[in-house]
Amino acid sequence: MPSSPINVLARHPEQVSAADPLSDLPDLPVLAEVLDAVPDPRSRRGRRYRLGPLLALSLLAVLSGATSLMKIPRFINGYDPGLRARAGLPGTPRLAASTLGRLLARLDGDAFDTATCRYLAILAASAPPTTTRSPSGRTPLTGLAVDGKTLRGSRTTDATVHLLAATRHDTQTILAQRPIEAKSNEIPAFTPLLSGLDLTHTVITTDALYTQHDHAHHIIAAGGHYLFIVKGNQPTLQRRLKALPWREAILNDRTDETGHGRREIRRMKLCTVRPGLPFPHAAQAIQVKRRRTDHRTGKTTIVTTYALTSLPPGRITHSQLAALIRGHWSIEALHHIRDVTYREDASRVRTGAAPRIMAGLRNLAIGLARLIGWTNIAAATDHYRSHPNDGLQLLGLTT
Fold first, then answer.
1. pLDDT digits 0-9 by tens, 96-122
2. Which of 174, 191, 184, 219 minimizes the C-alpha distance to 359?
3. pLDDT tens, residue by residue, 33-91
4. CB–CB of 12/390 below 8 Å?
5. Buried b (16+ CB within 10 A) or exposed e, 257-276
6. For the whole model, what pTM was predicted?
7. Helix and strand numbers, DSSP H then E, in the chain
8. First vs last Cα of the chain: how many Å apart?
9. H helices within 91-173, ranges in order?
């Protein structure tokens, strides 16, 4: 097995025109070896297959379009024996969904997320930057969106699995993920989620729920920046932002986009934060007006949003700042893919850590596909379903 996960990978999709971002990666462990480091809950007696290769083949099944726990063993059992042997599962396994379900339910979810998120972080960091340098020639900044997602099909009489994740804007790769404790909410999990990440040259973007003083202090202390939306959950802060002299402020950025049956015009204005604004480390206030026209109904709506950022004036261009605001919704796009392409909300996996592990496998499949240039994940699943050997190469296994 090679030490680089994709150094023999030929271009798979014809529609991918960008250079393969993973072709020049430094030496990295094979993904099966990364997954093999997750603690194995099975008894040594009667254990027929190593955990790493089994999880790697499960990932290959998800990458190929397995939308449920029941379908993963069907993919694995249907693979060519030579392909299974190259992946580390020799012989003729007859893996049952119930057996795999019990294994996933007993896995250490924290260890699994740590291993897979660290792996994706290394791959994403090795890819060429998609952002341009600031006017002063400083290091480009990476947008990191934080948001939560409920796995609706995991609902039991006691609770529903709810995961908080941090996702890169440019690659839709999950760099950290952790569950929300029952009878709690996402706010206490925010700081622990980011505590293991290097936030240098990173801008954390969030919706209004996470606009909290403690979060701002933690991000700045870790060497990062924040871009927080401000809404009614911070009424005093929102009132102060609305009172800023926006009529006198110049227009800093304007975009006009058409797509998905609508036209949207976005106008962004900036104000340097005045002394006395009740939020720590805030350097600039932002006003964004969105004018959206639905081509089908002809209806036009105008929405005004306010935000705060610790980025000082001139650190990045106005268009880059506007792109960071729009880029936060990349995490919503990721959630949409998991729900529509992988039917995550329809999954009825509920036992132990299994819902979290399945979500992690979907995150890993989407992240790997994005990093080699796939823009359409549904098309990627069609390709790897028909070409499982390409999937083995994507996981760092030679054919």
1. 899 899 999 999 999 999 999 999 988
2. 174
3. 899 999 999 988 878 888 998 999 999 999 999 999 999 999 998 888 888 888 888 77
4. yes
5. eeeeebeebbbbbbbebeee
6. 0.88
7. 14, 9
8. 10
9. 97-106, 109-126
